[in-house]
Structure formats: structure tokens, C-alpha cells
């Protein structure tokens, strides 16, 4: 008697939950009422997983507004399976749509979504939850797979394995090991890259300086947990917000490559005419890139198309909504813009002739290097200058007069959809993903107002851009300096790397991924599993898709630009989940897939 067909899903957080939802939606059409075992493997609760677990501090917020978070498909998603609509987080929780929910609130929503997807499966499907860690996947390409679990002697046998492991940790690289060794020798504190909510911050003493390298979302969490999380509070609102210390806070000296926080979330709704996208980087251009032989160079082959596409979104909005700030008819500008080669002097001249004020022009290079060439004559002048930068960013991001910024955001989402089709052939070092996050996935405006209040209170001190961190063996201290204040060093007995760890093939903390790397799965230099962009199958070194192994999520080359999908935006993640679920069900339906391999295989 043949064993029951089975599928193992490794990772039961948002991506695993989303895949399960699509599995349930497509099962009646593709699989019917045949028996099936679904095994979910995750040491954390199904639905929220680790990142969105409900027991973490309610001081930590989502980075999206409640109305912009959905786990359900709608008619804008290009998918073969059925649409199964459902509530947004705001609708489910009964909260105001423009609220930034807490992470426990999001975790509760994800748990409900998981239970709804599980309950939608027919009685012929049995779901098994394994609250442990998957260690290794083995088995022949044409036979059943074996998934080894921590603390369990017998492996799970699976016809198919889907990896939805989400964000994974990393072992320290040589630089981090060197810094840790220095800290151990001198009795200092060194916190390596980690998910901030998981880090032990108790070692950071009150009142003492702490060097912080990293100014993205990990820093925002650090800032919250070391201030409000230690009993501080805010009084007033808006520009008059004041931080009242508890006396338990350290002094955070923060810097990074850019030296500024991620751009604020946009604080208004993009109304009126929207830019028709895609235009200069759409399916035709992507098809042409895919037809090229050999590797693509991101800066040479792809970035010019992105630059022109984002410029198109920006200027379309400027001309349609703020024509008084332009000096050409739209039809004339459109023709000239279309004919000019990307990122050249000709295109720059077209823009300059049509948009008189440089502040109304889109300069992506300047956005990526906001403090290049700026020097300050004192640390106090640097604090004043950076507070001015953050204040200007907040003002701009909440002023509809600058609505081309919101159009660029729409362009960024469109661009990401095309990059997903290119898969491993672009962005091998992750630069684009980082730039996207900096420009489009920054903190809520209230968080930056809190940052300004903390700066005024002296709890946060800005270091500036191009930060250098050194170790002083003689004095037993960490030292940091930046290009904005040459020759001036800040010293501290603690160093925090405020960034998510990079799980490269050499340093991934996941035994499962390490085993896949060793076995021959194709990976990018940054440690992303290379998958078929069509259905998420793992590719081997020769580019052949594995018939029984799939992967979805941020640890793959098919990662999307945002953690969660906005309603009615096409939802690239939904499309991926649907394609993989349908491919999996079609394989399970195939009798050849159910033929057991010899146990010795």
C-alpha cells in the first residue's frame, strides 16, 4: 500500500501561511478530495512565526499602515488560481486604516489568517504542526524527500518540500569575530547584527555612550527599546514633541554609510491621475533582457531602465498635478523624454528645460548619497544639520505638494515586479534591495519625530555618513568617526551593529540552508537561494530545477520589495504563492510523484 501523499512546508510564518492559503484555494480544482498530509515545521507559532510573534513588546510597530496590509488576493493579482478575498488588517482588527499597528496586533491577524487557511482545507487533508527546526533535506531528485528535524529521530517523508523560512540569522563573519574578540579582551560590549527584538540589550548601561552602526529599521527598534522600553516618555506632539528621560537610557551615537535614517513613510494619499506604469521598464524590456546571453550587469543594463521609469512616474505626476512648476506642454515633454537615451546628458537637458526648479527634478544618485561632500566644523553643528535634514524629510513626505514622491513609490513597486522576472541575473550584491528599502520602506513619520525629540534631549547623537569604526587596543575602547567631521572621534565601551544579519553561504545560521548550499543548490554571492521565477523551484549549480523542492520568500532570488502586500496593487508575492501551490498540487496529482523511493535512497 502506497503511503499517503505528503508535502512539508518549512517555515510557518507569513510566507508559509500565504502558501497554505493558496494551497487550500487551488486544491479543489487540481487535486480534488484525494488524501494529503501537510506538515508545517517551525519552532514558532504558525501564522506570526518568529518576527511577528505576539509576545514581543507592543512598543514595536509595523512599518505599514493597517489599511495597507492584506494576506488575501483580489482581482488585481495576475494568478491562475481562484481569488479568495479577505479583510485587511484594519478591517479585521477594527482599527483606523492609517494607524501603524503594533507587531503583536499583526501577529494576531496572521494567526487568524493561518487558522482560516487551515480550516478551508477539506477533511481529506490532515495538517501536522511540528514546533521544531528543520535541519536537512535529503533524498533523490525523483523520489521522496526526507526532512530531518531537531530532536526527532525519524525524518519526515515528503513528496514535495516547500521552504518558506523567512528571514534567517547569520553566524559572525571574520570582522564581527574580530570585534567580539576585542570586546572580550577588554570587557566591552559588542552586539553583532541581529533582529533587534531578539537581542539582549540589558548589557548596554544607562548613561554611557554606545556606538551604533546602522540607521535603518533595526536602529528604530533599538531606539524604541532603549528609551520608551526603559521607562522614558514623550510629551507634546508634532514639532513640539519632547522626550522625558527615565535616567536608564544609554546615549546612542548613530551613523551609517549614508548617515541619515531611511526616508519617512509618505503621510498622504496619492489622489488624482496616477502614472501609467510600466512605460520604460515593463514586460517588453524585461523580455529583451532575458533573451540576452550571459550575465547582465545591473548598473549597465538594468539601472538606466529603472532610472528612466522612475523619472517617468515622477514627471508624469508633476505635469498632471503641478503644471505651474513646469515650462513645457506635457505632449512636448513626453515626446522628448521618450526619445532621449536613459541617464545621459540629453535626458538631463530635456528635464532641465521643462522643470525650472532643481528641487522638482528627480536625482536618484543624490538621494542615494544625501550628505556627500558636506562637512561640519563641530559635533554640535553636525547635530543641528542632521536635525534639519530629518525635519525637511518629514515635511516633504507629508506635503501633497511633493506628490511626485508618491508616484515614484508606485514606480518602485512596478520596477520590483519586473526585477522578479530577471531573478538571479540582477542585483547579486543586494544594492538595489537596500536602496529600495531606504527610499520606500522607511519608518512611520511619528518615529522620526521621536528621533528628533531624542536628539534634542541628547539621548541620540548623530555621527554622520561613511562611518569608520576602529578598535583601540591600548586604551581598550571602540572609536568611530565620519566623513562629515574629519579627525573627530567618538569613543565608547559598547558597539551595536544595528542591521539585519546577512546570511551568506559561508555564515548562514540555518543548518537547513547550509546543507542545501553544500549539496549544490545554486546561490547568489549574498546567500540567496536561486529559484525558477516561474514556480519557485530550487535550481542547482547547472541551472536545472529540482522536481521536488521549492522555495519562496526573502531568502530567495524571488523576494519581493515589501514584507506585506497592499490591497489592489497586484501582489507579486500572491502571484508567486499561487504559481508554486499550483505546481505543487499538479505534481502531487501525478502518480509518478507518489511512487515511493527505496528507503536506502
Automatic annotation (TrEMBL):
<feature type="region of interest" description="Disordered">
    <location>
        <begin position="547"/>
        <end position="574"/>
    </location>
</feature>
<feature type="domain" description="FAD-dependent urate hydroxylase HpyO/Asp monooxygenase CreE-like FAD/NAD(P)-binding">
    <location>
        <begin position="8"/>
        <end position="167"/>
    </location>
</feature>
<dbReference type="InterPro" id="IPR036188">
    <property type="entry name" value="FAD/NAD-bd_sf"/>
</dbReference>
<dbReference type="Pfam" id="PF13454">
    <property type="entry name" value="NAD_binding_9"/>
</dbReference>
<protein>
    <submittedName>
        <fullName>Putative NAD(P)/FAD-binding protein YdhS</fullName>
    </submittedName>
</protein>
<dbReference type="InterPro" id="IPR052189">
    <property type="entry name" value="L-asp_N-monooxygenase_NS-form"/>
</dbReference>
<dbReference type="InterPro" id="IPR038732">
    <property type="entry name" value="HpyO/CreE_NAD-binding"/>
</dbReference>
Amino acid at each position: 500500500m502506497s503511503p499517503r501523499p505528503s508535502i512539508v512546508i518549512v517555515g510557518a510564518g507569513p510566507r508559509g501561511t500565504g502558501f497554505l492559503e493558496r494551497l487550500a484555494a487551488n486544491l479543489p480544482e487540481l487535486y480534488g478530495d484525494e488524501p494529503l498530509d501537510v506538515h508545517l515545521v517551525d519552532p514558532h507559532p504558525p501564522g506570526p512565526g518568529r518576527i511577528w510573534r505576539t509576545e514581543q513588546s507592543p512598543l514595536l510597530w509595523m512599518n505599514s499602515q493597517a489599511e495597507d496590509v492584506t494576506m488575501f488576493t483580489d482581482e488585481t493579482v495576475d494568478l491562475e488560481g481562484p481569488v479568495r478575498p479577505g479583510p485587511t488588517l484594519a478591517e479585521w482588527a477594527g482599527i483606523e486604516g492609517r494607524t501603524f499597528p503594533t507587531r503583536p496586533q499583526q501577529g494576531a491577524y496572521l494567526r487568524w489568517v493561518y487558522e482560516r487557511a487551515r480550516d478551508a482545507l477539506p477533511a481529506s487533508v490532515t495538517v501536522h504542526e511540528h514546533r521544531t527546526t528543520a535541519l536537512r533535506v535529503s533524498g533523490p531528485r525523483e523520489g521522496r524527500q526526507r526532512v530531518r528535524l531537531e530532536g526527532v529521530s525519524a525524518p519526515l517523508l515528503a513528496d514535495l518540500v516547500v521552504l518558506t523560512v523567512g528571514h534567517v540569522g547569520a553566524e559572525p563573519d571574520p570582522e564581527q569575530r574580530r570585534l567580539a574578540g576585542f570586546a572580550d579582551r577588554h570587557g566591552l560590549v559588542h552586539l553583532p547584527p541581529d533582529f533587534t527584538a531578539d537581542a539582549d540589550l540589558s548589557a548596554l548601561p544607562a548613561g554611557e555612550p554606545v556606538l551604533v552602526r546602522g540607521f535603518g529599521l533595526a536602529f528604530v527598534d533599538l531606539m524604541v527599546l532603549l528609551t520608551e522600553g526603559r521607562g522614558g516618555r514623550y510629551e507634546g506632539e508634532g514639532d513640539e514633541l519632547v522626550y522625558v528621560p527615565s535616567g536608564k537610557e544609554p546615549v546612542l551615537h548613530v551613523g551609517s554609510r549614508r548617515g541619515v535614517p531611511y526616508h519617512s513613510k509618505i503621510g498622504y494619499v496619492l489622489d488624482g491621475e496616477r502614472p501609467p506604469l510600466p512605460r520604460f521598464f515593463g514586460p517588453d524590456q524585461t523580455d529583451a533582457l532575458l533573451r540576452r546571453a550571459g550575465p547582465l550587469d545591473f548598473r549597465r543594463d538594468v539601472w538606466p531602465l529603472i532610472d528612466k521609469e522612475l523619472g517617468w512616474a515622477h514627471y508624469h505626476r508633476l505635469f498632471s498635478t503641478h503644471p505651474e512648476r513646469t515650462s513645457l506642454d506635457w505632449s512636448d515633454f513626453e515626446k522628448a523624454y521618450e526619445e532621449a537615451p536613459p541617464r545621459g546628458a540629453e535626458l538631463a537637458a530635456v528635464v532641465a528645460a521643462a522643470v525650472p526648479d532643481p528641487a522638482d527634478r528627480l536625482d536618484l544618485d543624490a538621494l542615494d548619497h544625501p550628505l556627500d561632500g558636506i562637512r561640519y566644523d563641530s559635533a554640535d553643528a553636525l547635530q543641528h544639520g542632521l536635525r534639519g535634514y530629518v525635519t525637511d524629510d518629514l515635511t516633504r513626505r507629508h506635503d501633497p505638494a511633493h506628490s511626485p514622491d508618491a508616484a515614484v513609490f508606485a514606480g518602485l513597486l512596478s520596477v520590483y515586479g519586473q526585477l522578479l522576472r530577471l531573478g538571479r541575473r540582477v542585483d547579486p550584491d543586494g544594492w538595489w534591495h537596500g536602496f529600495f528599502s531606504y527610499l520606500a520602506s522607511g519608518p512611520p513619520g511619528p518615529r522620526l519625530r521621536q528621533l528628533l525629540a531624542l536628539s534634542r534631549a541628547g539621548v541620540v547623537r548623530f555621527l554622520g555618513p561613511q562611518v569608520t569604526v576602529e578598535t583601540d587596543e591600548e586604551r581598550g575602547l571602540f572609536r568611530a568617526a565620519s566623513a562629515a567631521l574629519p579627525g573627530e572621534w567618538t569613543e565608547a565601551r559598547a558597539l551595536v551593529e544595528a542591521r539585519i544579519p546577512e546570511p551568506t553561504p559561508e555564515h548562514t545560521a540555518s543548518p537547513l540552508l547550509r546543507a542545501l548550499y553544500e549539496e549544490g543548490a545554486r546561490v547568489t554571492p549574498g546567500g540567496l537561494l536561486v529559484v525558477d521565477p516561474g514556480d519557485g523551484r530550487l535550481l542547482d549549480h547547472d541551472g536545472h530545477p529540482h522536481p521536488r523542492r521549492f522555495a519562496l520568500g526573502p531568502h530567495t532570488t524571488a523576494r519581493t520589495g515589501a514584507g506585506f502586500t497592499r490591497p489592489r496593487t497586484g501582489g507579486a508575492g500572491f502571484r508567486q504563492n499561487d504559481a508554486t501551490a499550483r505546481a505543487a498540487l499538479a505534481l502531487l496529482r501525478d502518480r509518478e510523484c507518489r511512487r515511493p523511493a527505496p528507503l536506502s535512497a
